[in-house]
Sequence to fold (699 residues):
Amino acid sequence: MTAALDADAALAGPGRERPDAAPPASAAPVAAAAAANTADTAGRSPWQQADGQSGKPAQPLVARIVAVALLALVLMLCMIGSTLWLAWRLEGAAAAINDTGSLRMQAHRIAVELLRAGPQWRQTRPMGQGGMDLTAHVRGLADALQQSLQLIEQGDAQRPLLLPRTPAIQAEFARVQQYWQGTARPAIEQALHSGDAGAYLAALPELVLRIEALVAQIEQDSARKTTALNLAQGLLLLLAVLGTLAMIYLLYRWIVAPVMRLREGLQSMAAHQFGTRLAVQRNDEFGLLAAGYNQMADELQSLYQGLEQRVAEKTARLAAQNHQIGALYDMAAFLNQPNDIEAMCEGFLQRVTAQFEAQGASIRTLDSGSERLSLVTAVGLSPALTEAEHCMPVRDCHCGQATLQQQVLFVRDLSHLPEAAAPNCRHEGFASVAVFRIIARDAVLGSFSLHFRTPRELQPAQRQLLQSLGQLLGVALENRRLDAKARELAVVQERSLVAQGLHDSLAQGLNFLNLQLQLLEDAVRRQDAQEVDEILPLLRTGVEESYQDVRELLSNFRSKLEQGDFCELIEDTVQRFRRQSGCEIALELHYAQGAPLAPEQQLQVLFLLQEALSNVRKHAQARRVCVRIDNARDFTLDVQDDGQGYDPEEVSTRSDAHVGMRIMRERAARMNAHLLLDSAPGAGARVRLTLPASERQPA
Fold:
């Protein structure tokens, strides 16, 4: 076994090819076989190398292990089954020996009972005094012996009771039955009728001898079976030992030895000896592993040999990508600065021309309605060219044609173009031009172009970078336009609120003054001095109220222009209300406990507070006002007064609704806040503004 194991290990050992030493002579065939195998299986996966068509091992290791295990299991089950069968037969034979031996006792007992039933007993015990009972008793003993013979012949598998089926035992048992039926049983009947047991006593020794001969043969058969059982148990033990040794040998040959060879190969690879190869001489899973190891070693060897070159190439690519990312980051940072569109475009062109060494550049915006391009700014182009192309149709030049197609428009050599199709920039001495679209949200806003005085070809990475820069510029232009529209909309909304405020305060006061002047003019014409004296105080009061309204509006505008500290503006508003109205006002300001509001939301809250206090001053006739501000997760503004109040239903049904309430509602809606207006006649009024945490803007 050891010699076979050594021979198997030597046959499947790894062939090694080291770059720094020649392989030994004994390893040359293995190395040649490995090299031939590598050349033959180049370009194929390890699974295809093991089995050229199916990609599966021809002799799976698992199948062999399962087959050996099943074979060992079948042998063990056969041996165990045979020993159990022998033990069962021995137990049945032992029961047969006991029952056969009991036949002798039953035969002797019948003889004893027959002697007791002799002539003397019959003379002393006539019929009717126990004679019939003894006769039945003897016959019962004979029937019991007959039944024992039948039971031994038939056997009982449950006890078990098994008479060996050998010819000698069966013949001996037949002689016992024959002698019992033909000689002993008739002698018993004769003795019961005549009272003379001599015939039975004469036949009894022969019956006992035959029974003993039967018992002796059964015992001999049991001895042979016991010897066979012991032999089977010994064979079972020997089979277990040999099977264990065989399994150890097979496991070592099939698993341990290949794993050791694979470990040696991995250790060689860890030592950077990528020339090590494993011989693929098996068609099982380890053959696949060896083929995979060889393929991995080939790839690692090729990778390791060109690693420095690939690292340098990868480093160069990463440097180029980092340069592109840096350029995108710098351009994005510049485009996010608060510059106007012209300054932003000039800075964009300066950076792009410096990075790509272009001698000229331009940015044009597209009017999709009229299909015309407008020149926004240019670098390196003559004034005559910029004047000639300040606004032109999109199809008259390459700069416009680029907005009509998806790909980059790049002309390497303008001199090859026909005169009719040559752009104006060729007369400026430019040899090539590259045009890229300016895109924002899948909409083409225009194009920007780079002009080169020498033929120039842009690499794909450079083109991709310029396309990304065009997208950044498009987003910046779109944001500038949206900011302008937002500012315009904010101005319109604020003008609407101002107009409403003027209508609610100054316009109504001027209308009142106009009416009083008409009454004064009529009273002067009629020379009614008493009515003139009554109208003049009303005019003076109306002028003072209008002047106060104008000052309040100017103060509100100044708050809009001078966005100072929020708490200071709140306190200034409260102090101004105290001076204008003369009523008592209490301020509870809890603003520092939470995050500050955004500046736009601060101004809306301030305007809403000013409007609420203005309504109190004009309409409430209050003596006390309470203002409370809580800045927790939700921001709340609460203004309460003890004035005359109003009926909300009556106010809502008016055709000319109160403008101040509508202004407060619009300002609250602009912040997505909740506004509560609560009042009752004679119970004062309450204005409560709640700004939820989900609607707060970052400060």
Confidence is low (pLDDT under 50) at residues 1-55, 120-131, 560-564. Residues 198-270 form the longest helix (73 residues). The domain at 564-699 is CATH 3.30.565.10 (Heat Shock Protein 90).
